[in-house]
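Please go through this protein, sequence plus structure tokens, and consider how the sequence yields the tokens. Keep your notes short.
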Amino acid sequence: MSDLHLPCVEVQPKRAAEATVIFLHGLGADGHDFEPVVPFFGLPPGHGVRFVFPHAPSRPVTVNAGMVMPAWFDVRGMDLAQAPDAHGIESSSHLIRTLLAREAERGIPPERTVLGGFSQGGAMALQVGLTYPQRLAGILGLSCYLPLPDRVHGAPEAANRKTPIFLTHGTEDDMVLLPRGEAARDHLLGLGYKVEWRTYAMAHQVDAQEIVDIGEWLKKRLLD
């Protein structure tokens, strides 16, 4: 089995896992952040979906006065398009790919794995999922953006283009502004990806209806 470099929180199903959701937390949070949300997705009793919530490595974050905190990459300013931390993104991408490989070794292939995340975690889910050489069951991005759009110019394999993508965003988000999410959506639509897009009257957070909608989307991707 591949070495696992990221510690994770896991929520195991009551029966043998037949699918996996890997979900990446936002800046300054950890793998426990979305663990309590799992029961609210409304998956049927006895489902076989494993949830994996990795902890990001700790690193100094420029926008937060250099404080060391869990972060998938450095954020150098409030303008998220300015000087993205390509090195940090690639370093974390490698770790996330290791998680995908680990799931395959545990019997869950990429086409039965959803990769998702919130905010910075959602940005990583997009960056990794869209450049992964195999089709995933889906990519889920909450209140996020595409940090290196120039590196997402086409799928490495034709099957990747068919990966379903679900993007959600708050209309009042003052951290990752709505136009950043819309830009990611439009970029992917322009490349021919199938993108479902939902907005909610909220700030940089998660909404109860959003959780219900995500649960319905997960059912279609992993249980139908």
Summary: The chain has a mean pLDDT of 92. The chain has one domain: 8-222.
